[in-house]
Design brief:
By secondary structure, the chain is mostly helical. The strands form three sheets. Strands 4-3-5-6-7-8 form a six-stranded mixed sheet. Strands 1-2 form a two-stranded antiparallel sheet. A two-stranded antiparallel sheet has the order 9-10. Helix 7 packs across helix 20. It is elongated, with a radius of gyration of 39 Å.
Length: 845
C-alpha cells in the first residue's frame, strides 16, 4: 500500500472524480445499520453522508502532499497568479510592451508629437538657434578629436550624424548632442590597451599620422559597443544604473577630463608638437614633455593663440551680454575667430613663411557608412560599458536641467534609446562617443529653440557648410582650435572653490572627491572613475553598516519627539526609552543594531538631565558657531521660555511640574532629578532638606551674565547614580522601550529576526518592546515571518506619540499578560456545572 493510501483521510477516496465514502466508513455504516436491524437506516445514513460530502467538496479534488491538503483549484490559482504577475512585470520593465502600436510609435519618436503641436512661427527661431549651436559645436568637436588622440578633421563628422539620429528619438526638445571633452578623454584612454594588443609596432614608429588613423577606427568600435549597451539599458528600463555616479565622483572626474584636454592643447597653442600619447599617467606625461620641449616654442603660434583666446574671452565677458539683451542671440564668436584665422593664414601663408601649424587635408566628401572593425569589439566591452554610463549620465543631466525651465517631461528610457541610437549610427562614420553638454544645450534653449528641429537644421547647416567651403579649413591654425577649447574649459576649474563648503558639509564626501580627482590625474580618468565609484560605494556601505541610533525626548509642552543629542533641551520620559533607527534595517547592519540598541537600553550610565529653563542663553551661546545648531537651539529656547513664563505666572516652580530624570535598566530604583546638589547650591538653589521629589528655589531664574554656572549644570556628575538614598523610591524603572522605524526605508528578513532577538532578550530583563512605523510593507513582513509571537500586533503603532501613550497606560495599569491560561471559570448563572474557558473562543455570558 502506498504512503498516500496509508495517510489519506478515511472520508474520501481517489478512485473516482466524485467523492464517495471510503471502504472504512462503509464498513462502519453497515455495522451501525446491522446493529439497528434496519436497512432503511443504512440507506438514509449513506445518502446523508454523500449529500453533505458533495455539498462541501463537489468542486474540489483533494490530494495529499507532505502532510497537508492542497486543492487543485488553489494550485491552478497560484500558477495563474504567478504567470499573471510575471507578465505584468515583463510588460512594465520592457520598453513598449504596455503600449498600443500608435502609442508606441508616439513615444519612440517624440518629434512626431512635437510637430503635431508645432507653431510654424517657431521655424525661424529653430533655424537660427540650430545654426548658431552648430557653429559653436564645430571647434569643440575638432578639439575633442585631438583630446581623443585623433586628427582634428575626424571631429567634423560628429557634428552631423549623431545629432540627426537623436533629433528623431530624443525626449528633450533642446538637448544638443555631439562631441564633448569628457567623452573624448574617455575614448582616448581606451586606445592604449587595444593598440598595444593589435598594433604593437605603433609604439615605436615615428609616423604619428598612421597611429591617429588607427585610433580613428578604434573610436568607432568603442562608440558601437557603448551604443549597444545603451540600447539594451533603454529596452529594459535600466536607466537607474547611472545613479552609481554620485556628484562627488562625477565632478572631479569631469574636471580631470577637462584638465586632460587643457594639458593636451596648451602645447599646440605654443607650437610644440608632442608625439601622440595615450595610457596611464597621461596628465603628468603631457606636463613633463611640454617642459622638456619648451625650447621648441614657436613665437607665431603662441602669438596667434593668445590673440584668439583674448578675442574670445573679451567678447564673451563684455560684449556678448549686451548684445544678447538687445537681440536675444548668442553670437558664435568662436566660429568667427576660426574663420578669420583660416583667412589670415591663407592670405599671409603663415605655414610656409613662419612655420605655423595648420590642420592640413580635409575630406572632400562625406564618408560612406561602414561598420567599425569587429576585431576590436571583444577588447572594448569594459570601456564601452563605462562610456555608455557616462554618456547617458551627462545627457540625462542636461535634459533634466532644461526640463525644469520649460516644464517638459523627460523619459530616461527614451533618452537611453535616443543616445544609444545616436552612438550606434555615429560609429558607422567612426565618430567617438557623443553626449549632450549642458553649456551648448543651454545656449540652444536661450535662443528660443522649441523642438529638435533646431538640431536637424544645425546638422544640415553643418553638412552644407562642410561640402561647400570645408576645404578652406585646410589653412586653419591648430593654435586657434586649441585656444578655443582651453578658454571654454578653463571655466570648469571654478569648481575647486566648492571644496571648502563640501568639507564643512561632509568630510567623507570630500575624501571621495579628492581621491577620485587624484586617481584621475595620476593614473588615468577611466581608472580614477572606477576608484571613485568604489570609494563612494564603500562610504555608503560603511554608513549603512553603522547607522545612527538616536535617543528621542520631548521638549516641555511641545508636540513631537526630538533627538537628545541635537536638541539638548529635550528630556526623556520616565520609565520609557525611545530609540530611533535612522537607516534601513538589513543583513549588513543587523548585528550592529542589535548590540547598539541593547546597549543603549541597558546602559547603566544615564545622560545628565537638568532643568531646561535655566540655561536658555547658555545653550544658544554654545551653538552660535553652528548655523544648524543655532536654528534648533533658538527655536527650542523660545518654546521653553514661553513655558517658563507661563509657569511663573501660575506660581508653579519649574522643576515641580515634571521629573526629567530617566533611570535606565540596571540602576537603582530612584535618583534625583538633577545631577549634583552642590552645583545647584552654588547656582543659587536650595538643597532639599528631606526625601522629596519636589525642589524649591531661592532664585527661579539664572543670570545670563554668569554662563559658567549654567554650563556646570550640563556637565555629567559622577554622583548621578550614587545619590539614590536621598529620595523615596519612584516608579521610574525602565519597563518599556519604543523603537521608532519611521525613518527606516526597508527591512529584510534578517532585520526582522534581529528585532525578534532584541525583543526576546529584553523580555527576559523585564523590558517590553513597542514598534513605531507607518509603512504597511513592514507590518506585512512581520506577519509573514511570524514575528508577532515575540512582538504582538498590539505593540505596533503608527507614530511615536501613540506608542508613548500606550506605554504610559500599561505602566499605570499593569497590562494583563498576553496569554490567558486554560483554567476553570465558575459560571452558575445558566448551568449548575462550571463552564470551562476554551482559548480562542469568546467567553460565555
Amino acid at each position: 500500500m502506498s504512503s498516500y493510501a496509508k495517510n489519506r483521510p478515511p472520508y474520501f477516496t481517489t478512485d473516482s472524480e466524485s467523492p464517495i465514502l471510503s471502504p472504512d466508513l462503509q464498513d462502519e455504516t453497515s455495522l451501525s445499520a446491522d446493529s439497528s436491524g434496519s436497512s432503511d437506516l443504512k440507506d438514509k445514513c449513506t445518502q446523508t453522508t454523500l449529500s453533505s460530502t458533495k455539498h462541501f467538496h463537489a468542486s474540489r479534488l483533494l490530494c495529499y502532499d507532505v502532510g497537508c491538503w492542497t486543492t487543485k483549484s488553489e494550485k491552478d490559482d497560484s500558477v495563474d497568479k504567478f504567470t499573471k504577475n510575471t507578465k505584468a512585470v515583463i510588460k512594465r520593465r520592457v520598453y513598449g510592451l504596455n503600449q498600443r502600436p500608435v502609442q508606441f510609435l508616439g513615444s519612440l519618436f517624440p518629434l512626431i508629437s512635437n510637430i503635431l503641436n508645432y507653431k510654424w512661427t517657431w521655424v525661424l527661431k529653430d533655424f537660427i538657434s540650430g545654426a548658431v549651436v552648430s557653429m559653436i559645436h564645430l571647434p569643440q568637436a575638432m578639439a575633442g578629436a585631438m583630446t581623443a588622440v585623433m586628427r582634428p578633421q575626424h571631429g567634423l563628422f560628429i557634428t552631423i550624424f549623431p545629432g540627426l539620429m537623436y533629433a528623431f528619438l530624443g525626449s528633450s526638445p533642446q538637448n544638443s548632442v555631439g562631441g564633448m571633452p569628457i567623452t573624448a578623454a574617455l575614448t582616448g584612454v581606451s586606445m592604449s590597451r587595444i593598440r598595444e594588443h593589435y598594433h604593437p609596432e605603433n609604439y615605436t614608429i615615428t609616423n604619428a599620422g598612421e597611429m591617429l588613423d588607427v585610433h580613428f577606427q578604434i573610436a568607432g568600435a568603442v562608440a558601437l559597443v557603448a551604443g549597444l549597451f545603451q540600447l539594451l539599458m533603454g529596452i529594459f528600463k535600466l536607466g537607474f544604473l547611472s545613479n552609481i555616479f554620485s556628484t562627488n565622483v562625477m565632478d572631479p572626474f569631469s574636471v580631470a577630463c577637462c584638465m586632460q584636454a587643457i594639458f593636451g592643447q596648451v602645447p599646440n597653442m605654443l607650437g610644440i608638437g608632442l608625439f601622440p600619447y595615450c595610457g596611464l599617467a597621461k596628465h603628468p606625461w603631457l606636463v613633463s614633455n611640454m617642459f622638456i620641449n619648451i625650447k621648441n616654442i614657436n613665437a607665431y603660434d603662441t602669438m596667434i593663440s593668445v590673440l584668439a583666446a583674448s578675442c574670445i574671452l573679451g567678447f564673451r565677458e563684455f560684449l556678448q551680454p549686451i548684445l544678447f539683451r538687445k537681440t536675444n542671440i548668442v553670437y558664435p564668436i568662436e566660429f568667427f575667430v576660426l574663420v578669420l584665422g583660416a583667412l589670415v593664414s591663407y592670405w599671409f601663408n603663415l605655414n610656409e613663411r613662419f612655420g605655423v601649424r595648420i590642420l592640413g587635408a580635409i575630406p572632400e566628401s562625406l564618408p560612406l557608412p561602414q561598420p567599425p572593425p569587429m576585431d576590436y569589439i571583444p577588447h572594448v566591452l569594459g570601456e564601452g560599458f563605462i562610456n555608455a554610463l557616462v554618456s547617458f549620465g551627462l545627457t540625462i543631466s542636461s535634459a533634466k536641467i532644461l526640463a525644469r525651465k520649460e516644464g517638459n517631461k523627460i523619459s530616461p528610457s527614451q533618452e537611453l534609446i535616443a543616445i544609444g541610437s545616436a552612438n550606434v549610427f555615429g560609429s558607422f562614420f567612426s565618430c567617438f562617443i557623443s553626449a549632450a553638454p549642458v553649456g551648448r544645450s543651454v545656449i540652444n534653449q536661450s535662443m528660443g529653440s522649441k523642438s529638435q528641429l533646431s538640431t536637424i537644421f544645425g546638422c544640415l547647416f553643418m553638412m552644407v557648410l562642410f561640402l561647400s567651403v570645408g576645404q578652406s579649413l585646410y589653412y586653419l591654425p591648430v593654435g586657434i582650435v586649441s585656444a578655443n577649447i582651453v578658454v571654454t574649459l578653463i571655466m570648469t576649474l571654478k569648481i575647486f572653490g566648492d571644496l571648502p563648503t563640501l568639507w564643512k558639509a561632509s568630510k567623507p564626501d570630500t575624501f571621495t572627491w579628492i581621491i577620485t580627482f587624484t586617481a584621475c590625474i595620476v593614473l588615468d580618468v577611466r581608472v580614477g572613475l572606477i576608484i571613485g565609484i568604489t570609494f563612494s560605494l564603500f562610504f555608503v556601505t560603511y554608513r549603512s553598516h553603522r547607522p545612527k541610533v538616536r535617543v528621542l525626548g520631548r521638549i516641555k509642552k511641545s508636540a513631537g519627539y526630538l533627538p537628545l543629542k541635537e536638541y539638548r533641551e529635550a528630556t526623556e520620559i520616565p520609565g520609557i526609552k525611545i530609540l530611533q533607527v535612522q537607516s534601513a534595517f538589513h543583513f549588513g547592519n543587523a548585528e550592529y543594531l542589535v548590540k547598539k540598541i541593547k546597549s543603549m537600553i541597558i546602559d547603566p550610565n544615564p545622560p545628565p538631565v537638568a532643568d531646561p529653563g535655566s540655561y536658555i542663553a547658555t545653550v544658544v551661546n554654545e551653538r552660535e558657531e553652528s548655523p544648524i545648531g543655532r536654528r534648533r537651539s533658538v527655536v527650542a529656547a523660545v518654546m521653553i521660555e514661553r513655558n517658563r513664563v507661563h509657569d511663573q505666572e501660575t506660581s508653579r516652580p519649574l522643576l515641580e511640574q515634571t521629573n526629567h530624570q530617566v533611570i535606565p535598566l540596571g540602576t537603582a530604583k530612584s535618583a534625583p532629578n538633577l545631577a549634583d546638589f552642590s552645583e545647584f547650591e552654588e547656582a543659587g538653589f536650595d538643597k532639599p532638606s528631606s526625601k522629596k521629589t519636589k525642589f524649591s528655589f531661592k532664585k527661579l531664574t539664572l543670570s545670563v551674565n554668569d554662563p559658567n554656572k549654567a554650563k556646570s549644570l550640563m556637565r555629567p556628575s559622577s554622583s548621578a547614580t550614587a545619590s539614590t538614598d536621598t529620595l523615596d523610591e519612584l516608579e521610574t524603572d525602565l519597563t518599556r522601550a519604543i523603537i521608532d522605524l519611521n525613518m527606516t526605508s526597508f527591512i529584510d528578513s534578517v532585520g526582522l529576526r534581529a528585532l525578534e532577538q532584541i525583543a526576546s532578550d529584553l523580555e527576559k530583563l523585564g523590558v517590553e518592546i513597542l514598534l513605531s512605523q507607518n509603512k504597511g510593507s513592514i507590518t506585512d513582513q512581520i506577519k509573514r515571518l511570524k514575528v508577532l509571537k515575540t512582538i504582538p500586533e498590539r505593540n505596533i503603532f503608527l507614530c511615536v506619540e501613540d506608542a508613548v501613550a500606550e506605554a504610559k497606560r500599561r505602566i499605570r495599569k499593569r497590562a494583563e499578560p498576553d496569554h490567558i491560561p486554560l483554567e476553570e471559570t465558575p459560571d452558575n448563572r445558566f448551568w449548575p456545572t462550571p463552564a470551562f474557558r476554551v482559548e480562542g473562543l469568546p467567553g460565555t455570558n
